[in-house]
Amino acid sequence: xxxxxxxxxxxxxxxxxxxxxxxxxxxxxxxxxxxxxxxxxxxxxxxxxxxxxxxxxxxxxxxxxxxxxxxxxxxxxxxxxxxxxxxxxxxxxxxxxxxxxxxxxxxxxxxxxxxxxxxxxxxxxxxxxxxxxxxxxxxxxxxxxxxxxxxxxxxxxxxxxxxxxxxxxxxxxxxxxxxxxxxxxxxxxxxxxxxxxxxxxxxxxxxxxxxxxxxxxxxxxxxxxxxxxxxxxxxxxxxxxxxxxxxxxxxxxxxxxxxxxxxxxxxxxxxxxxxxxxxxxxxxxxxxxxxxxxxxxxxxxxxxxxx
Length: 307
Hints:
Blueprint: H1 2-23, H2 25-29, E1 30-33, E2 45-48, H3 52-67, E3 73-75, E4 82-84, H4 85-118, H5 123-138, H6 141-159, H7 176-202, H8 205-212, H9 217-228, H10 230-254, H11 260-266, H12 270-294, H13 299-306
Antiparallel strand pairs: 1-2, 3-4
């Protein structure tokens, strides 16, 4: 356990340094050129090229500021008031993180639920569901987000019933539609992949043995097949989190949500971007650490022998 924790700290340090290094890639190809001495009020210009020295200077500067992270500040939008980044960034951060993790949990839950239910359908209907999922998976994420937002407006226009707020006004926090939108896109992907993994598992000898022993379909699916696809869920978790983050950028813009990514857009300095992305990567790293620590190894082998 101690060795795993030490390795986790090393991995977390490497991830942090990698995030900071990636955030500074613009400094490698763009360099700020100060205004001429005779035009002190002119705006800074950017020069395009290859500037490794500028990259190192900006990287050192940001690492030094992160070492004293409580001193990092930004100018509040619409004012000339300078504020410390903490605790103001935490409000946007916790809001975005809540949307991300609730959406991920809902997507996982309904993907497993719908997959289990699909195997009670006739074979032709199962193939039809698979084809529909393939079509839905091909739809652009922007189209799905816009359609749900437009659907909420259409319902309100024709029934005068406001099911949910389709747009955030004056910093208002909305939850239902963003969570529905964020969970729907990964749920389609997980539903299809879980269905394919279940199909693969159901063709294995240990399932046939379970059926021969008189075990019910639901018992086999939940007790034996589902544990065998847990590792696939685990490895898909990284992809799902990145998918949610990419959709979150679009969603915050289209729903006017003031989340962590909107905070970055409004204050695009190297240190603020680094802090925000580090905050977003830490939860996933911690979740992965606990899963790797407590998820029993060899579950597939054990499960097949158990039948």
